[in-house]
Amino acid sequence: MDRANVEQCRDEQTQVEPGRAMSILVIEDDPKTGDYLKKGLKESGYVVDLARTGTDGLHMALEHPYELVILDVMLPGLDGWEVMRALRAKRDLPVIFLTARDHVNDRIHGLQLGADDYLVKPFSFTELVLRVRMLLRRGVVREADFFEFADLKLDVLRRKVTRQGVDIVLTNKEFMLLHLLVKRQGEALSRMQIASEVWDMNFDSDTNVVDVAVKRLRAKVDQPFEKKLIHTVRSIGYTFGDGA
């Protein structure tokens, strides 16, 4: 283990949670990886328990007040998917999948089951600790990854949109715009808010980029269908829902 990285991580952990050691459960069957994680996380300032099987890990996660779980997928007994599913039915705490399974469908499946992060082996220990720190500082604040309103369905992870079962092909910015409108449904969003969140830009009153984008989005999402979901709010901007 890189001593400089461990010292840096320990110093940063102390700054975030002075005087308090936060508890982590590692569920990992590979002896070398499990011992490596336990040793490194302890040296970074955490209290760490290690489970070698999915069955033991799930039992420990449900019986003890851990603040974060690091979970492998390929485990004896219950696999990581089963542990994640059972854990989410009982508790809501941050979970990081740490696994050699790097296919995009595995990553999507893990996040859909409720994981907060997904890191592929081989991994950087420093990166892992930074992700642990971020999740522990943030707590459990999980955005929905699937929205359904009227006959519209929006799958955030697969970046897929349908209405009445018909696929709607959107550009990246159009998808970001629709996602913003849908997740803030019922709110009147100003053009400034939209420009800031979708284009990461300060709004210029002489720029019609938002209006042009909304017009294009409406042509795909609303125009072919009887029920209109994107509405103009006079003198403000736009809203998504049954009506302005």
TrEMBL record:
GO biological process: regulation of DNA-templated transcription
Limits of the OmpR/PhoB-type domain: 144-242
Matches recorded under Pfam families: Response_reg, Trans_reg_C
Residues recorded as bearing 4-aspartylphosphate in the entry: 72
Keywords: Cadmium, DNA-binding, Phosphoprotein, Transcription, Transcription regulation, Two-component regulatory system, Zinc
Annotated region of DNA binding: 144-242
Iron-sulfur is among the record's keywords: no
UniProt xrefs under InterPro entries: CheY-like_superfamily, CusR-like, OmpR/PhoB-type_DNA-bd, Sig_transdc_resp-reg_receiver, WalR-like, WH-like_DNA-bd_sf
GO annotations of cellular component type: cytosol; protein-DNA complex
Molecular function GO labels: phosphorelay response regulator activity; transcription cis-regulatory region binding
Phosphoprotein recorded as keyword: yes
Domain Response regulatory: 23-136
Protein name listed in UniProt: Transcriptional activator protein CzcR
Organism of derivation: Pararobbsia alpina
